[in-house]
Every structure is written in structure tokens, then in C-alpha cells.
Amino acid sequence: MALIEDYAMIGDCRTAAIIGRDGSIDWFCAPRFDSPACFAALLGTPHNGRWLIAAQGKYSASRAYIDESLILETIISTSTGKVKLTEFMPPGTPESSIVRLVEGLEGHVDMHTEIAIRFDYGMSIPWVTRHDRRTLTAVSGPNLVTIRTPIILHGEDMHTVGKFTVRKGEAVPFVLTYGESFKAPPLSIDAFIAQDETAIFWRKWARQCRVSGRWRKIVMPSLVALKGLSYAPTGGIVAAATCSLPEQIGSTRNWDYRYCWLRDATFTLLALLNAGFTEEANVWQNWLLRVIAGAPEQLQTMYSVLGDRRLDEMTLDHLNGYEGSRPVRIGNAAVTQLQLDIYGELADVVAQAAKGGLPPAPRRTELREVILKHLESKWCEPDEGIWEIRGQSQHFVHSKVMTWVAFDRASRAPGTTAHQRRHWRSVARRIHKDICKKGVDSSGRYFVQHYGTDELDAAVLLLPLVGFLPPTDRRIKATVREIEKRLIHKGLVKRYETHSGVDGLPPGEGAFLACSFWLVDNYTLMGRRKDAMRLFNRLRRLSNDVGLYAEEYDPVAKRMLGNFPQAFSHVALINCALNLMVDAQERAQKTRKRPAGKTVSKKAKKKSSAKKAGRVTNRASKTKPRASSRQAKRKSHAG
């Protein structure tokens, strides 16, 4: 079984394929991200479906994405020669296709391919038919896959296999296309023309990015990953391309992330806006406001890419799970949970969209009023929180803070009446007071996970980022110190102390990558530039060879954990990098303006750090005394 970091992703902005270093596509769902997989070896064995193209015998391989795209190029070297394997999914075609092109570079290389199509998450074996020398179809129920290649393929032990030799100057294409069995087979596409058109698509998209220099090289791999996780027909962005990759090897913390989470909304919007992708940001905003239309009490934490509400959770007992991590789950029961923080996310995404110059979405004002009326009666209730616990509901501090965000942002929104502003400010003050009284430890020094405990939670790192309190506040400083002492393991930040049993699950998981990025943002706000850069550079080194991140990282085993690639990890990196970039620019500007020999007082430094976030992320709070802002985005779910 390959390590999670051994995989790369290709996609067409409708679905994605996950490819190992060994040339095996071990995960592919069609026609959408959340459709049943027809290659499911990632969560089982090769018998559950995969597509391998590799050199025969011993070989070495190196890979990279071409320019700023999801076109993957792998150089395979053997004792007899060298070939280039180019893999991509063409966007904008009627059906999703995987194109794999083997080109000879030196000498000759003996290759082989093995295709095991298994519909319904590796369970249904299709009927394979040869139509001519170049075309095969595999059919099971409503599903159809067409494979076109000049290589002679034949059946062997319920697999389709073939051997071929590629010499210098030769090129061998393979095209796999998903279709529906009750329709005519998908039309043939030319692999070489598709490669050119796919490259043009990615070049045109990348030109929107307004980040330049060394920072562009840092953020573009994550922006490309985020684009690859977007569903073009509706604008939804899935949390990950996979399901049930474990947060601890052998554990039951295995969840389906192929859906769109509302709590990702604001930081995703910020990442796109601040990098220059205004069109994508607007499409994401419109998707968001479409899916939440309806009664506020029916608001869900997540939806499908189409906006579907039914995401029923079930287990797939025929799959062994990644490295034996069971159960394998599809769907997500957290869809039925009460998670109060999403109301704050919605309010903040509307505020940031307006600040970012996006056109107003339909019914934005009406939705705000209806949602806040509902939230006013619900904010004081316990919920399942940002981590979607499966234990007893609690009064989570982060959830309460995000309800404060909802009323705080609404009280300053344009187009509101004086009465509304006064009322919403009054509710925000009441929530703020409640949190500051009940959301701290028994000594009142630092913020805790939930009311009535001294346990910590990395989610409280978001308090200064949303403007709840400035980074100079003694409780914020004490909270950061406590997290440094108790939640950092081998230099990385854990979500919370799982041994407490608060989540209703067995203890143990990796370090949550986004939490470490939140700590970087706190360091930046506090003026701890060296600490921020030290941790940020370490996090950068944790990406795999093609710049992708999973959800978590095990600093002991030194391997990735959780679903892959994880949108939230990449969003957190983008915003964190842009914050550091602006911070560096401001420092350089101040240095140029300062007369020679003149130093900056500690008081001036503190004042600068308290104001910095608003200039960085456009999320400054204008209410007094809270002048900070939110810079990084969080994600996640324990289920």
C-alpha cells in the first residue's frame, strides 16, 4: 500500500483521479467527486479497481506538474531507456476522461498496463467488450467506461492487461472515458489535441493570479489544488477528493470529505480574492447563497456539489480500508448536527464579498435578517462544534465566538437600519461578555475548548483572527502560550486533547495542518516574525513532491494522514503566505521610511501588530476595542 504522500491528483473540475508514484490510479469517482468509485484500490486492494501503467522490471521515476496546472509529468528511467508519462483530465468535455500518454525519450522501455474496473466502490465487476482493435467498453448497470488505445489489450483473471515497448520518438496514448450505459458510447478524443487544449485552459486560468515572485511559487500549487477540487457546473468546492483515509492508521476516524462545507466559505473566499481569482470567488459566493436558501433552522454544515441535502452515512464492509483502517464510510452523519459556527461563517463571507468588490448576490440582505432572527434564539445552546464531535454536545468557545461574528458583521453591514444596527450590536455585546466570562479556564487566564473545562482547543487560535480580541490582549497571549505547551507535538499543532473523550471517539490522531497555519497567523499578528517564518517553512517542507497536503501529519512516523488532497490545508497555506508577504512588504516599507539610526518603540510595534491583519486579509473588525481580523481559514471535522 502506497503512503498517502505518494499520491498526486489530476482533475477536470468535475471529478478527480488519485495516482500513485508507481503509476497506479487507485481512486476515481465519476461523473462527480461524490459518485461511487470505479477505481477503489486506495481503500482496498488492486482487485477493488485500479489502472496501472508502469515499466517492466526495475526503474526509477520522478514527477512534477507542468507549469501551473494539473497536468502530471513522470519521467521513468530504466537500464535500456527513458520515457515520459503525461497524465491529465481535459476540462470542458462532455464526459470526464483520463488521458495517459507514454512518449519515448531515450533508447527503449518495456511497459505494461493493468486495468481493473470495479464499479460501486470496487464491488461490481463489469462486462468487458472489444469493439475494434482500439476500443473496449466495460458495462455494469447504468455505468459505462470506454478505453481507447492502439495497444493490444486482453483479458486475464478478470483484469484487462497489455504489454508494449516504447522507443525514442514514439508516443502511445490511452484514453479512458466515463459514460452512461443507456446512451451511445462517448465520442473519441484525440489525446494530443486534448493535451494542448488542457494546457491552454490552465495557462488562461493561472493568468488571473496577481501574486508574483517567490510568493507566487509558494501559493500557486495550493491554488491549483483548490481549482482541481472545484465543481465547475455549480461552483461548489469539495473538502477533499477522497473518503475514509484515516486520521490515525488503524483507527475508526475515517470520514467522507467529498462534500462542500459551509465553514470553509470565508477563508476560501479570501484565498481566491486575495490571489486575484475574482470570478471563482463570485461563483463560490453564489453557490453558497443558493444552497442555504430556505428555512434557517434547516441550515446544514455541508452539502453536495449540487446542493443536495441528503448525505446519508453508511459503511462499505467489502473494503478493508486504507492499511486496514475500518470502517470505510461514505456519506457523512455530521450533516444532521447543530454547528452554530456556520452562521458566523455565512455572515463573514457576505461581509468579505462586499469588501472584496464582488457583486451583491440575490437575497443577501433578506437572508441575513432571517438567519440572525433564528440565531438569536439558538446561540446560547450547546452544539457539536467545528470538529463535529460524536460525543455529548457542548458550549464550544469557537462556536460562540462565531455567533458573535454573525451579529458583529451584521451590525456594520451597509443598508441596515439604525434600529437593526443597535439591536445586533447589543446581541453581539451580550455574547462577547458571556464568552469572556465562561469560555476561560478556572483561573480566567486563557480560553478553553468549551464552557466548564480547562481543556484546550486549537480552534481558539481563531479568536484574534476574527477580531474577537486583539492579539495584544493578555488572554490571547496566555492562550497561545498554553497551546504551545500542551497542543504542540514535535513542532506541530494538534486540534485538541483527544484523551478527554469529548469527541466520543478513541483517542489519538495526527497533527492538524491547518491548526499549525493558524499559529503562524497568530505569530504574525503578535509581531513574532521569526517564529512565524520558522513554523511556516517547516509546514512547507511537509508537502509531498508535487506540493500537495493531506488533512493531518504524523510527526513521529513522518507521514501524512487523513483525506487527500485537503482543500482546507491548502486554503490555510494560501492565506498564511499572503499574510506573511504583506507583513514583509510593510516591514520593508517602514525600514525605507525610517531615518538612519532611529529605532521603533515597543509601543509602536504593538500598535502595528494589532492593526496588521485588516490590511493583510481585508477582514478587520471596526468595533471597539476589537481591531484585529481573521487571516487564515480553518477546516474540519472529526466526522
Explain how this protein is built:
Helices cover 32% and strands 20% of the residues. It is of the alpha+beta class and 639 residues long. The protein has two domains: 4-206, Beta-galactosidase, Chain A, domain 5 (Distorted Sandwich); 213-617, Alpha/alpha barrel (Glycosyltransferase). The protein has a 15-stranded antiparallel β-sheet that branches. It has a three-stranded antiparallel β-sheet with strand order 24-25-26. A two-stranded antiparallel sheet has the order 16-17. A hairpin with a 2-residue loop joins strand 11 and strand 12 (143-148). The longest helix is centred in the last third of the chain and has 27 residues, at 567-593. The protein is globular and about 75 Å long. Mean pLDDT is 91; it is low at 609-639.
Describe the structure using short key phrases:
single chain; 26 strands; Beta-galactosidase, Chain A, domain 5; Glycosyltransferase; 639 residues; 15-stranded antiparallel sheet
Short summary:
The chain is α+β, with helices and mostly antiparallel strands and 639 residues long.
